[in-house]
Design a protein that fits this description.
Structural class: alpha/beta
Helix content: 25-40%
CATH superfamily of the largest domain: Dihydrodipicolinate Reductase, domain 2
Radius of gyration: 21 Å
Number of domains: 2
Largest sheet: 9 strands, mixed
CATH topology of the largest domain: Dihydrodipicolinate Reductase, domain 2
CATH architecture of the largest domain: 2-Layer Sandwich
Number of helices: 9
Number of strands: 15
Shape: globular
Order of helices and strands: EHEHEHEHEHEHEHEEEEEEEHHE
Distance between the termini: 36 Å
Strand order of the largest sheet: 14-13-12-11-7-10-9-8-15
């Protein structure tokens, strides 16, 4: 199989390295307008053929085009690749609008091609372990999902902090709660450095009365990557900054009883043992590359498909509308398709 990588900036070299390392990939092409980026890739990976013209890359005999360019270009470049008969790998977020995501999914379906959206965290050992614990029933019914992703980070010129950081945790939320329907979104934030919000809070409401909250920030003096998943049996804490005990399972919860004929709720707290399960240490991007290659060979959707990408973009799009109206509640089924 042959692979072309469009965009050799921040993430592109990681894609080049992982596809080159895959035993079923025989050739990798790299494409970027920048001479410096092409030269860097060529110096690090001499076997990679570098190009400056995307149309020339589309003319090559490649099965996969991986798009690692700004989100505003994903639709244009993805559509060109699909129309040229290529399966596409697209970095997060999938597209800039829901309608663009729908259009790419429909085009791929018509062409018999596959779309992979690089929600990388789904392929980490920690997140897969969390899904395993939830599927086993050990955690119980999920009541809330609380996530913090903050750091003194890189300001993006084309999107705000929600579009930049929240896709990671939204994709994890959707993976851990696959059967829960999102009904509404509210977002608050401030753009106090330039036109895009640099700190924001996003709330997600589900049909079954569970709730998710995301705190994202480019201007924090400390780097935090933590989420809490509260079930009615046990609770999970995932701290991605931990080297060893990334996941902790707490036998903790709340038990509610109501006295008959008396409007008084009695809350009893349960605090039991905590343990940290073993987490498989493998490179997520390598697993993602293998998943996409196998999905193409087996003619099936990959684990993180264009459909999953669409679900994340729906929330991002609703958050954009909400944050511009100071936290107005936006129903997901009312997000405008343009």
């Amino acid at each position: 199989m042959k692979v072309g990588i469009l965009g050799l900036g921040y993430w592109g070299p990681n894609l080049v390295r992982n596809f080159m390392a895959h035993p079923e990939v025989e050739k990798v092409y790299g494409c970027d307008l920048s001479d410096d980026r092409r030269n860097l890739i060529k110096s690090r990976f001499p076997a990679v053929e570098v190009l400056s013209d995307y149309n020339e890359l589309l003319g090559k005999d490649v099965e996969i085009i991986a798009i690692a360019t700004p989100v505003g270009t994903h639709f244009k470049f993805g559509k060109m690749a699909l129309e040229a008969g290529k399966n596409i790998w697209v970095e997060k977020p999938f597209t800039a609008t829901s309608q663009q995501a729908i259009d790419l999914n429909e085009l791929a379906e018509q062409k018999g091609l596959k779309i992979f959206v690089d929600h990388t965290f789904i392929y980490t050992g920690a997140v897969r372990k969390m899904r395993e614990l939830i599927d086993s029933g050990e955690i119980g019914e999920i009541k809330y999902f609380d996530s913090v992703r903050i750091n003194l980070g890189l300001f993006q010129h084309d999107v705000n902090v929600i579009w930049d950081l929240a896709p990671h945790d939204l994709s994890i939320m959707n993976y851990l709660m696959p059967n829960e329907k999102i009904v509404a979104v509210a977002a608050n934030g401030v753009a106090n450095y330039y036109e895009h919000e640099s700190v924001a809070h996003l709330s997600v409401y589900f049909e079954n009365n569970s709730f998710a909250h995301f705190h994202v920030n480019w201007t924090s003096p400390v780097k935090i990557r933590k989420m809490v998943v509260g079930g009615d049996k046990k609770m999970l804490v995932f701290d991605d900054m931990e080297n060893f005990e990334k996941i902790k399972v707490y036998d903790a919860g709340v038990e509610i009883t109501t006295k008959e004929k008396i409007h008084q709720v009695l809350a009893q707290y349960r605090m039991g043992d905590m343990y940290s399960p073993k987490v498989e240490a493998t490179e997520a991007l390598a697993l993602g590359a293998d998943e996409f290659i196998q999905a193409i060979k087996e003619n099936r959707d990959p684990l993180t498909s264009g459909k999953d990408g669409l679900e994340v973009v729906k929330v991002l799009e609703a958050s954009e509308k909400s944050i511009k109206h100071r936290g107005q509640l936006i129903e997901i089924n009312q997000v405008e398709m343009v």
